[in-house]
Records
---
Amino acid sequence: MGQTPERFTYDVFLSFRGEDVRRGFLSHLYVSLDRSGIYTFKDDNKLERGDDISSSLLKAIENSRVHLVVLSENYASSSWCLDELVHIMECHKRDSKHVVFPIFYDVEPSDVRRQRKSYGASFLEHEKHYNREKVLKWREALTDVANLSGLVKEKDGDEAKFIVYITKEILKMTSISYFHLPTYAVGMRLRVQDIYKLLCFGSDDVQTIGICGMGGIGKTTLAKAAYNEFSYRFEGTCFLENFGESSKDQLQQKLLSHILRRADIGSNNLDHEVKQKFRNKRVLVVFDDVKDFFHYNSIAIDSSCFGPGSRIIITGRDKHLLYLCKAEKIYSPEALNSDDSLKLVRLHAFRTSKPSKELLQLSIKLAEYCGGLPLAMEVLGTLLFKESISFWESTLESLKSIPNDNIQAKLQISFDALTEVQKDIFLDISCFFIGMDEDNVNCILDGCKFFPKSELSTKE
């Protein structure tokens, strides 16, 4: 079996019995998913059929995030559908990233689960033509899928409303890629609430807001937290991290592929594509760490590129630059207050351990010297974890002469505490291996006799 890809080729794989639903329900559902930007695989006989399920179809199942199984009256009569279902359930059991979403279309879940009525009749026929092992696999797959949470379409139900509801549920499953946030995100909830107020979700116009502040204040973390919190409200989302480090073409490709949920974006006339493809979509786009207006402007976007209700968030250190980028409202995160600063320092420096009175007093001084900057508290608190009182005192002495707003100088202390080999590894990673697979980097550095796993292991 193939491994689950980090980025799925398809958002949804549709498994269905063509003669039951292809011309009505299924075609309308496919259009609804497509209009919502949900990239859907629908086998419409373009793949060559044979006695057994094709390798192309197996690969499409493995490369799909959500498997939407439409269990209609004659679904079980098709050996092809049952083979699909067996493979779908195997993928689901092997990796929970594969979501199976059953739709019971004019059938009762209990009849599917126990193979009664039309399902029972189908299996009476299958037992005449297929070996016992194969039939048992089919029965098990039907029982398993019927035990999952899904939706039931009643015979007299409103099909249009049912399709809209399915689409909304699929959007929740496919459109949100959550960012990892710091383990100790002190004060973040209140900041996200402030962003919520600025986003004005009741308004249908396109709005741009800025998040402005010095390095280390937590702009990117706040943008990620807001993205995690509010992505489900939009038809398409994209977070362009470290904006200044990517070329115009790379940024446009990512913008198009993420919002349209397509991996096969061409490289021709991207300016036109960016200006045209999102006009009917309500999207959320985050431009993180914008430093150059001309670089931002080269992406060829403005409010007219996005559909009603879209929101753009831009983070950066220069308020004037954010205004040039047409941010109507700008949020400036304040430094953490003394209580939150002390809490964050102690969470990183002591974690669950019980420090001595001397270390508790030193942690107060560390919180004060960090000037309310979360990044400084995270880095220095981690540096001082399980260190001696003399090491704490030496570090604090180094901090005394550094101004509160000089985050780079404060973080330099943690770099200076590394051994020469650790510094070399750190610089090699920073210069040559950004974005590379960790195992590959470890292999290369091992070949250079640096042994990163031992040199960079977390202190116990």
---
Amino acid sequence: MVMMSLELTGKLPFDTVMLHGLLRDAQGRKMSKSLGNVIDPMDVIDGRSLEDLEARLCAGNLDPREVARAREGQRLAYPEGIARCGADALRITLLAYNVKNLDINFNVAHAESNKRFCNKIWQSFKFILSKIGDGPFQSTDFKLTGQEDSTDLWILSQLSHMVHVCHAHFEAYDLHLVVEALHQFWYRDLCDVYLESVKPV
């Protein structure tokens, strides 16, 4: 990309590059076709049955002994196949790992957990938008109205703190800490406390 951009435009396409460690399977093994532990991102996004995973192994060019070993590995790792998690859950999962480590042990179960997190975001927005009223939401500069109660002021302070924490972690390229701060704010502060307290009113 750098060479092509310099040749065609005379400019660098970016000035910062973030390198990451080697992506391994959940047990810390290097991903290998013969082990059957290679994880295709599309399998995590769309989901795959164990039968589909095994069919792909058999259609490849592996030695029959390696196919048997790989099938056994898949049966142990994904007895029910790989659940459909979606692209957003996969993105959050990859960001949640400390990419500065030399090795990153990718676990499909983490993507399944983050699918629930994405669903929590969707559900809370659905609730909030149902209370805003009809018509499209219009974003405006935020100003306190003087009608906020202590719970409103508390969630605004928690949001402000989360924004500052995320900004600091973005600056340090600690994306896993950004995801952690978002998880804590969304689950604990927004959904578990604030939304539950305002539902009656």
